[in-house]
Amino acid sequence: MDVRNCKNCGKLFNYIGGQPVCPTCAKALDEKFAQVKEYIYTHPGAGMQEVSEENEISTAQIQKWIREERLSFAEDSMVGIECENCGTMIRTGRFCQSCKDKLANNLGNLYKEPEPVKKKNLKDNPKMRFLDS
């Protein structure tokens, strides 16, 4: 059993996984998320600071939800965060589409079949061999 202190309120709770917050704070955070999501839906041109002030939530938490792809904004919205790789403004996630494609391509190249190693035919070279010990 893993017992931890809640990151928000400091109360002890049985940690199962995910965010290190107690069930009470997790429920309150989920309610705030629903409130923020509804506000963004009804106010599509709102900036991040306005969303933060109107819903009494930190901009850091809003950015975290954007990085987790729980929130996304319309292309014409003023809200955006920087791609973690190149710094381009994006609306959701951690990376822009260009960086995602590059990462996927690089990972794909790692799994290419290696070229087969040619085995030497010992019958062609009948010299005596010794094993190093």
The secondary-structure element order is EEHHHEEH
- Shape by Cα distribution: elongated
Number of continuous helical runs? 4
Strand % is: 5-15%
Helix content: 25-40%
Question: How many distinct beta strands?
Answer: 4
Distance between the termini: 50 Å
* Major beta sheet, strand line-up: 1-2
Protein architecture, described:
38% of the residues lie in helices and 8% in strands. It is mainly α and 133 residues long. The mean pLDDT is 84. It contains four helices and four strands, in the order E-E-H-H-H-E-E-H. It has one domain (3-109). The two termini are 50 Å apart. It is elongated and about 85 Å long. A two-stranded antiparallel ribbon has the order 1-2. A two-stranded antiparallel ribbon has the order 3-4.
